[in-house]
Amino acid sequence: LQLVESGGGLMQPGESLRLSCVVSGVTLDDYAIGWFRQVPGKDRQAISCFNSNDHSTYYEPLLLDRFTMSVDRAKKTVQLRTDRLKPEDTGVYYCAAVPSDRGAMCVAYEYKYWGRGTQVTVSS
């Protein structure tokens, strides 16, 4: 299984950003996929997770109003859209996967496979 993120970069506050994660080597339906981020000085934080068992998407409550996760099974791509970017959104954004039969919660320590991450910097 391989996950490759893209779409990061230098952004202005208030802009929108779309990150992509291409999943290869497995069938998406067999895995839960999550987006996480690590901002400087903090632990890796969950943003949202897609449950392939019931096709539900969980969002971290404090981020719910600005983040949207979408899944394209045909393209095996998972996207994360962020609106109204803030400087505190600066960090490395990762997608991760875990077999769906594990019933994992949307927390970093339960996810087994990780991409290398893509850097997002929000600064004026």
Key terms:
single chain, 124 residues, mainly beta, 7-stranded mixed sheet, 4-stranded antiparallel sheet, 0% helix, globular
Describe it:
- The protein is mainly β.
- 0% of the residues lie in helices and 51% in strands.
- The protein contains no helices and eleven strands.
- The strands form two sheets. Strands 2, 4, 5, 6, 9, 10 and 11 form a seven-stranded mixed beta sheet that branches. Strands 1-3-8-7 form a four-stranded antiparallel beta sheet, with no helix packed on it.
- A hairpin with a 4-residue loop joins strand 5 and strand 6 (56-59).
- The termini are far apart.
In short:
This protein has 124 residues and is mostly beta strands. It is 0% helix and 51% strand. Strands 2, 4, 5, 6, 9, 10 and 11 form a seven-stranded mixed β-sheet that branches.
Biggest sheet: strands, sense, closure?
A: 7 strands, mixed
Q: Order of SSEs, N→C? A: EEEEEEEEEEE
Query: What is the number of beta strands?
Result: 11
Number of helices, where a helix is a run of at least 4 consecutive DSSP H or I residues: 0
Oligomer: single chain
Low-confidence stretches: none
Report the sheet-strand fraction.
over 45%
- Report the end-to-end length measured between terminal Cα atoms: 37 Å
- Report the mean per-residue pLDDT as an integer: 94
From the spread of the alpha carbons, the general shape counts as: globular
Radius of gyration: 13 Å
Structural class, please?
mainly beta
* Relative helix content: under 10%
